[in-house]
Structure formats: C-alpha cells, structure tokens
Amino acid sequence: MGGWIRNTTSSALRFLQLGNPKSPNAPICFYYFQNPFYSTSSFKKKKPRYVFDKIDDALALFHQMIQTRPRPSIVEFTQLLGTIVRMKHYEPAISLLRQIELLGITHDVYTLSMLLNCFCHLGRVGFGFSVLGKLFKLGLQPNIVIFSTLINGLCLGGKVAQAVRLFDDMLREGYQPNLITYNTIVNGLCKIGDPTRAIRLMRTMEERDCAPNIVTYNTIIDSLCKDKLVTEALNLISEMTGKGIPPDVFTYNSLLHAMCNTSQWEEVITLWNEMLANNCEPDVVSYSMLLVAACKEGKISEAHDIVERMIQDGAQPDTVIYNVLMDGYCLQGKMDEARKVLNSMMTISGCVPNVYSYTPSW
Fold first, then answer.
1. Which residues contact 218 (CB under 8 A, 6 or more apart)?
2. Which pLDDT score, from 0 to 100, does residue 5 have?
3. C-alpha 97 chain-centroid distance
4. Given its phi and psi angles, is residue 177 left (phi above 0), alpha (psi -120 to 50 degrees) or beta?
5. What Å distances lie between residue 352 and 40, 348, 356, CA to CA?
6. Exposed/middle/buried for 279, CB within 10 Å: 0-12, 13-18, 19+?
7. Are 158 and 51 in contact (CB under 8 A)?
8. Residue 89 pLDDT > 90, yes or no?
9. How far is CA 301 from the centre of its chain?
10. Does this model's pTM top 0.85?
C-alpha cells in the first residue's frame, strides 16, 4: 500500500483527467460535507467552540490570534477555521489556511481536510487531489473521510464514473468504506439514472456489514420513482420497513410524485391515508402533489378540502398552492370560485400573486 500512497496524487490526477494545478505548492483543503450524508461533526463530536453571526467577526479573531504570543496551537486554528467552513465561507477559509502555512505553522490532517473540503465545495476537485499530495509529502495518512470527500466532489461535478473508479481503487487498497462513502456513490449513481447499479451497491454494503439507512433507501426509491418503476420502489419500502426503518415524508413524497404523474388517483389516496396512519406528517410538497392530482382528476371539491386541511394542520399554503387551486376552478369554468381563492390568497394568507395567478392554463 505504501507505493500506492506515494504515487496517488500524480496517478489520480492523470487517471481522473482532472489536470494538474500549475503550482506544486497550490493550497490544500478538506471537505466537511454539507449535504444529507455529511456533517462537519464527522471528525469531532464536540460542540463548536466558536459561533459567529458574521464572517467579519471570525476574520477579526483570526487576525488577533496570529498576533498573539505565544501563538495558539494548530488545534485552536482548526476550531476557528472549522466554524468558518460551516458558515460556507470557503474562499476566505482557503486564504486563511494559506496564511497559516506561510506563518510556518505545520498543517495536520484536520487542516488539510478542511482545505480539501473547501476546494470540493467550490468545484475544484483537481486542487483537492493536490491537497492529497501535500498530505503524503508531510508523511500523513489519508483516512476514509478524505477519500469520501474526493468521491463526493467528483459526484457533485458530474464525474460519477471517475468517482466509482476511485471508490474501487480505494477498496483494492484495503480502505473500508463507511456508510457516508456508500451513500455518496449510491447518490451519484442515482443522479445519472442508474438505480439498478445503486441497488447492487447496496447489496454489497450489506455483504460488508454496512447496513443501509433511510438515506440509502430514499435515494434509490426516489430514482426508481422518477423512472416510473413504482413496483420496484414499493418492494424496497417493504424491505426497509421489515428491517425496522420506517418510511419518512421524503419516501412518501417520492411515491406520491410518481403516482400523481401516472394519474393513479385511488392509489394516491390509499398512500396518503397510509402516510397519515403511520404518523408521518405531510409537508408543503406532499400537499402540493396531492392538490395537483386532485385538480387533474377534476376533483375540485376534494382539492378545496386539501387546502383547508393543510391550513388546519399548520402548513401554510404558498402562491403555488393557490395557483393550482385557482387553475382547477378555471378548468371547470368556475371563475367566481377562482376569484374567491385569489382574494383569500391576498387578504387572509398574505401571499403575493404572480403572473400565473392571472393566467389560467386553459
């Protein structure tokens, strides 16, 4: 493995056809994932030491720290910079990490990981690989989170095939993927419309004693539903329920969307009732899909009841919801009812009409 470690940067850049940054000393970074799969708590479970409302306050503290004698340790800088990254100020974080290096403060795995994180968020995965090279030059060993960061960065950039190849290389070199790594690849495969391969990967997870979670299942279920493979999606829901993973609102919304698109009104109502019976609270997306389905079926009375129920449940209808209801009335020639909805929308709910509010689809 040692030889592979030493040669990873140059070979990976050629292999992934990302191009090599011009400067051999290009800044470096680490990816704290800010998506459904990743959290900045991936490394340290402690609560953040620093909390700021404005980036200027964080920058002021940094400049104060570098003037302090004796200078704070790399750990203290890491805590501050981690807060800046969580605030999603990636460019300033890269600049500050470079300043730390120029001050002669030696990077550790966490600061390099932060730098890689920033580059990946900014779509500069090639620079992320240069960070990996920096890590090796300092005699540090990459961990699974660093590779997961690079894989996610490739997926975000639409380079799913390269991400899968890097994942396979990682496996061959003895790295054990965690749930985050698997979910990243599953998400990438589903985004390119390959849920079948994502399911195979999920089976591999299980064989390697890495149990899929609700995110894994929801990602694949949503992809199946978008491909109108509702039966396969329902089979996965039965499987996850059997494993003690109850479907959530995202699961139900994926199914509702697929069924509404295929005008399966009776199935939609059955699924809606099941959702309520399982104490899964619908959100605005759920209500909007049910409302569209009712209007498409010409069930305007049911559509009106849906909006009323939505309000009773504390989910505030927005302009889109009211537009759909008005359109339903217009399709049936009930212009007076449509005007009542428009008035309620403005006077009671305080929603601002848009151009579609005055342009019925018929």
1. 248, 250, 251, 254
2. 41
3. 26
4. beta
5. 38, 11, 11
6. exposed
7. no
8. yes
9. 37
10. no
